[in-house]
# Entry
Amino acid sequence: MTRLFAPGERALLLDSKGRRYLITLAEGASFHSHAGFFAHDDLIGCQEGTTVRTGSGARYLAVRPTLPDFVLKMPRGAQVIYPKDLGQILLLADIFPGARVVEAGVGSGALSMTMLRAGAQVSGYEIRADFAERARSNVESFLGAEALSRYSVRAADIYDGIEETDLDRVVLDLPEPWQVVPHAAGAMRPGAIFLAYLPTINQTATLRETLAEHPFVLAETLEVLLRTWHVEGRSVRPDHRMVAHTGFLTHARYIGPV
Ligand code: SAH
# Structure
């Protein structure tokens, strides 16, 4: 069903050079750039794919932002996990509707939004209260109030312990996940999945050693390399630039007290 752009919702604008702008539509407001401006009212009531023009003739194509579009443009304090890794995390951690997940640190909420969108029930731990608040507002802004009913973030240090029990998944993006391993072992159900994202291999090695000292099996570490292509006429080749490194993903299964 075609839903027309309405006030209060977001639109992603693309200019002729491929630059992207995320706006929130409001009646009476206007979008300004170096190439002039247009009124939001020109877009409200139109369908996705509409092109609007500024007075000086610049054109902007408008579509609704996808989750990756939003993650890359939303307000953030901490670094977010990039979409290439978010997608892989969903499947490695096998996130499913209703899964009981503990996540730490929550940061700006990019990973939270991805898991909530897949239907999980997420309890977050974030030491910075201001980040916890921003994550909640990003979640509500992109996913709406229903997602907030499956999401809580406590301003707490997860190295001190995990209050939840019988967890299906523990998913971590913080500097010393090995400090969480003993707490995770006490909070997960047998068969549950532990996953951590880490920027360096030294940290990853320490995590793997700690996992090996606890009842975890099937541990695996990997990285996601994504290469986009330039496709234009007869010039069809990989792009010259790529993001060569973001982080390492390590996942393992908890098999219960031994
Ligand atoms: N995955 C998030 C980004 C997390 S950045 C996203 O995709 O948006 C790492 C976060 O971990 C930071 O916000 C930091 O404040 C938080 N953090 C660091 N140590 C922590 C701890 N011991 N307990 C809880 N949060 C912690």
